[in-house]
């Protein structure tokens, strides 16, 4: 799985960091950044992405197909 954060949509609420702190962290602008998506299972990664009210987290499978949102 691959994950990225749309910085234009991210408002820094932090649900993703709470659900998957090994995958997401805040940068100096208090925007989420993706670290290591392989550090959690797929269900946890999707749950973290779904927790973002702005849908700023994009999850793709290994073939580059968008899984979420």
Structure commentary:
The strands form 2 sheets. A 3-stranded antiparallel sheet has the order 1-4-5, covered by helices on one side. A two-stranded antiparallel sheet has the order 2-3. The protein has helices spanning 15-19, 42-50, and strands spanning 2-5, 24-26, 32-34, 57-60, 66-68. A hairpin with a 5-residue loop joins strand 2 and strand 3. The protein has 69 residues and is an alpha+beta fold. The longest helix has 9 residues, at 42-50. The protein has 2 helices and 5 strands; from the N terminus they run E-H-E-E-H-E-E. It starts with a strand and ends with a strand. The protein has a single domain (2-68), classed as Alpha-Beta Plaits (2-Layer Sandwich), CATH 3.30.70.20. The radius of gyration is 11 Å and the shape is globular.
Could you say what the CATH topology is called?
Alpha-Beta Plaits
Number of domains: 1
How would the global form be characterised? globular
Strand content: 15-25%
Number of strands: 5
User: Counting H and I runs of at least 4 residues, what is the number of helices?
Assistant: 2
> Radius of gyration over alpha carbons?
11 Å
Quick recap:
The protein is of the alpha+beta class and 69 residues long. The chain has 2 helices and 5 strands, in the order βαββαββ.
Question: How does the SSE layout of this entry go?
Answer:
Elements: E1 2-5, H1 15-19, E2 24-26, E3 32-34, H2 42-50, E4 57-60, E5 66-68
Antiparallel strand pairs: 1-4, 2-3, 4-5
Features:
69 residues, alpha+beta, Alpha-Beta Plaits, 3-stranded antiparallel β-sheet, two-stranded antiparallel ribbon, globular
């Amino acid at each position: 799985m691959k994950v990225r954060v749309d910085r234009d949509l991210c408002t820094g609420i932090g649900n993703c960091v709470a659900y998957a702190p090994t995958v997401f962290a805040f940068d100096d602008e208090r925007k989420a950044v993706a670290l290591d998506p392989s550090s959690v299972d797929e269900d946890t990664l999707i749950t973290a992405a779904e927790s973002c009210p702005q849908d700023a987290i994009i999850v793709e499978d290994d073939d580059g197909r968008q899984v979420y949102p």
